[in-house]
Structures are given as C-alpha cells and as structure tokens.
Amino acid sequence: MLRNAGWWLADYVYAGWWQLRAMFDRTDPASFTSGEAARIVVLPGVYETWKFMQPLVTAMHERGHPVHIVDTLHRNRRPVAEMARSVADFLDAHDLSDVILVAHSKGGLAGKIVMTGPAAGRVRAMLAVATPFGGSRYARLMLSRTLREFSPEDPSILSLARQLTVNDRIVSVFAAFDPHIPEGSELAGAKNVRLDTGGHFRILADPRVLAELAVLAE
Predict the structure, then answer these.
(1) Which residue blocks in 116-206 are alpha helix, DSSP H?
(2) HSE-up of residue 119 (Cα within 13 Å, Cβ side)
(3) d(C-alpha 146, C-alpha 79), whole Å
(4) CB–CB of 113/45 below 8 Å?
(5) Model confidence at 77, in pLDDT bands (50, 70, 90)?
(6) What pLDDT does residue 27 have?
(7) How far apart are CA 63 and CA 210, in angstroms?
(8) Contact between residue 64 and residue 32 where contact means Cβ atoms under 8 Å apart
C-alpha cells in the first residue's frame, strides 16, 4: 500500500512538471520531422498536448526517427472516434505510410481505431503506453463526459474490444500499478509489457518504452 502511494505521488509530480513545462515551451514540432528511420506519429492522452510527450519525442528523433505531431488534436478532449478521424486525415494529408503510432493512454484507443479504419494501410504498428483498452471503472464516477467515455460499458470501448485482427501489431506497455486504470492495459493477442513499477504518466520516460520502439521499428 505504501509503495503504491509513493508511486502515485511520483506520478503526479511527473505529470504536473511536464504539464507546467508544456505551457511555456515554444518548440516547433516541425523540428522533429527529419530523419531516415521509421516514421513516428505521436498520439497523446486526454488533456495532454504533444508537449507532454516531448521527452519521448526528443529521444525518438535523436534515434533518427522523423516524428510527426497531429496539431488538430490540441488537448485531446474530443471523443475517441473524432480523434481517430483527425489522425487518419493527417496521415492522408501528409501522405504518410508505414508509420508507427506511439500513443499514451487515450491516444492508444484512437490509434487502434485508425488501424481498423480507412487509413489502416498507412500504419505498420502501434506502441501504446498505459492505454485503457478495457476501460476504467473509475470513469463511471467522473462528471466530465470526456472522462466517462473510458467506462468499460461505453460503446466505443466495447466496439474496440471486438476488433481483434490488429492486436498482434500492437505493443502495450503498462505499469504493475496504474492509479487510473485498475483493470490494467493488457490486450489479448498483443505483445504485453508489464513494467515492475507504478504510474500512469511517468512510465513514458521508462527506458523500456524506447527499447520496445526500437524492436518495433526494425
């Protein structure tokens, strides 16, 4: 119990720092689009801009990956299906193919929809970090419609659960203890990577995330 509490506290310190830093950072996302390695498209979580994932974006770019930001997502408060349409439109508009989606939380739900929709042929695989593929029972208690969408009974969650054909092209990375997703992020048929730590946000900086991306991008 004490260990989980410590992980929870560290998780919110990490999230608070990167949300605050994102408010003042003026980095141009276009500066990350160069590179010869596999193309990456970043899908942040709910209430997050791409800058929340900037440590991961920078690390991927330093490894030679061109990293693309879907600027129309903003803070990612729209329904998952709308987010997925924005991502698909972005892939079409920029004629991106053979891409790897790198997603956090809600971004992984949208990414899976993209992988099963009209733009599916443009996506090679997805690395999803702390994604509530089966929903979160805590969502039932939320007043915000944006957060209630993660309920295990939500139609979008149930529909995604029935989509099994792309699961073998997904790597799901998640912590042993996630304060936001008590059900965990294990996805049937996917490569599931359970980290021996806790948190929903700070695992974005875990070295195993980059290691799994390196394997996925071979």
Answers:
(1) 145-148, 155-162
(2) 25
(3) 7
(4) no
(5) confident
(6) 84
(7) 10
(8) no
Mean pLDDT for 16-25 is: 79
Using DSSP's 3-state secondary structure scheme, residue 67 falls into strand
How many C-beta atoms surround the C-beta of residue 216 within 10 A? 18
Name the CA radius of gyration of the chain, rounded: 16
Question: What single DSSP character describes residue 104?
Answer: E
Q: How far apart are CA 104 and CA 18, in angstroms?
A: 14
SS3 (DSSP) at 71:
helix
Cβ neighbours of 183 (radius 10 Å): 14
d(CA 117, CA 113): 6
Q: Which residue has the tokens 């993660």?
A: 150
The answer to whether 168 and 190 have CB atoms below 8 angstroms apart is: yes
**Tens of pLDDT along 134-181?**
999 988 888 788 888 999 999 989 999 999 999 999 999 999 999 999
**Whole-number Å distance between alpha carbons of 84 and 211:** 26
DSSP label at residue 120: G
Cβ proximity of 44 and 104 under 8 Å: yes
Looking at residue 52, its amino acid is F
- β partners of residue 129: 104, 173
Beta strands in 40-187 (DSSP E): 40-43, 67-69, 99-104, 123-129, 170-177
